[in-house]
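Shape matters. Shown next:

___
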Amino acid sequence: MKETLCDSGEGTLMGVTLVFELKGVNWPYVFIYNNWNRLISKMNSRWGDPHAGATLRAAWGYGEQALEYKPKIGSTPLPILLH
């Protein structure tokens, strides 16, 4: 797994996004799982994840997991500054 911090780098105010490059992902499963979770969240706010979604090449959401993520770049946590 490779972690990368993406930023526009052109003086614009934009949140930095952590991007993972993964191998061996079952994209059809991720597509169905994430989009199903988004769909059921519209039926009942206690179900699923309204921020989840996927295409056959990318996935997003994972709110709770993202909040718990601790970066491990080298041995020092990487500071992220938002302006």
